[in-house]
């Protein structure tokens, strides 16, 4: 079954998101490194932006070409172009709405900048780099906690669990079939060499795509067998390299859930 582009998930965090700018620059220059320089981020951050957008969109947005100018060539897929067209339309609509509402918001806040700041917070950006659109499969009460079983929306092979409080589950109105966004910071993801002896909750096999060495740990970007991207950390001097098989693990309590509306 052919995957469809999810515009609502990919564009749901507001146009303040620089990931759209990176995608646009890739379309202009045909290079990840040139796009990174144009937007003012590192090459690694640019690739992680592409990975995150791909997770949210559910389909590939950028096609890589080995040996391109400026650190490797890249071009937008048809879905990437479609996403940019939608982003442009959404940005224009957002500007029109803000132009109409900003004077009202300013008056409501006594004429100060508070109203504009409140509107700007609607385009809130977050630091959690691992983001996956999911659907709630079931809810499992565990005393004062609730274990939420999730399935990837565009990657049905992705199964994960989040452990939250009963109150949080009630406030989010969680129920089977509800679309949610699962998020996890990269620092909470543990990366191990090789494949796990047996699969367990929130333990996924994959293949490393990029490895950055660091004294506090090696940062690893990987493509899971389930078809999504994930960023985590291995032990310092792990010896992991691009192309190696890895296992990514995260505690259920480290998975954050978000719903819209």
Counting helices, strands and paired strands, the structural category is alpha+beta
Give the CATH level 1 class of the largest domain. Answer: Mainly Beta
State the helix count: 7
CATH-derived architecture of the largest domain: Beta Barrel
Radius of gyration, in angstroms, nearest whole number: 20 Å
- Poorly predicted ranges (pLDDT <50, ≥5 residues)? 108-114
Family: Belongs to the ModE family.
Domain Mop: 125-193
Protein name: Molybdate transport system regulatory protein
Pfam families: HTH_1 (PF00126), TOBE (PF03459)
Structure description:
The radius of gyration is 20 Å and the shape is globular. A five-stranded antiparallel β-sheet has the order 5-4-3-6-12. A five-stranded antiparallel β-sheet has the order 7-11-8-9-10, with helices on one face. The protein has a two-stranded antiparallel ribbon with strand order 1-2. β1 and β2 (73-76) form a beta hairpin. α3 packs across α4. The longest helix has 31 residues, at 78-108. Helix content is 32%, strand content 30%. By secondary structure, it is α+β, with helices and mostly antiparallel strands. Keywords: Molybdenum, Repeat, Transport. GO terms for molecular function: DNA-binding transcription factor activity; molybdenum ion binding. Belongs to the ModE family.
């Amino acid at each position: 079954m052919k995957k469809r582009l999810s515009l609502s998930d990919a564009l749901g965090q507001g146009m303040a998101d620089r990931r759209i700018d990176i995608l646009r620059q890739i379309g202009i220059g045909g290079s990840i490194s040139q796009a990174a320089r144009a937007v003012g981020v590192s090459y690694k951050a640019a690739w992680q932006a592409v990975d995150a957008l791909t997770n949210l969109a559910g389909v590939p947005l950028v096609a890589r070409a080995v040996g391109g100018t400026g650190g490797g060539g890249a071009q937008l897929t048809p879905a990437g172009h479609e996403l940019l067209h939608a982003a442009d339309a959404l940005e224009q609509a957002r500007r029109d709405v803000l132009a109409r509402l900003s004077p009202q918001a300013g008056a409501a806040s006594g004429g100060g900048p508070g109203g504009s700041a409140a509107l700007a917070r609607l385009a809130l950006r977050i630091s959690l780099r691992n983001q996956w659109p999911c659907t709630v499969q079931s809810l499992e009460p565990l005393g004062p906690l609730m274990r939420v079983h999730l399935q990837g929306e565009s990657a049905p092979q992705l199964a994960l669990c989040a452990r939250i409080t009963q109150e949080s589950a009630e406030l989010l109105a969680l129920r089977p079939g509800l679309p949610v966004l699962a998020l996890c910071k990269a620092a909470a993801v543990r990366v191990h060499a090789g494949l796990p002896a047996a699969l367990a909750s929130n333990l996924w096999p994959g293949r490393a795509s990029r490895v950055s060495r660091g004294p506090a740990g090696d940062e690893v970007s990987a493509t899971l067998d389930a078809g999504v991207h994930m960023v985590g950390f291995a032990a310092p001097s792990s010896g992991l390299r691009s192309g190696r098989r890895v296992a990514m693990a995260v505690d259920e309590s480290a998975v954050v859930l978000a719903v819209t509306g």
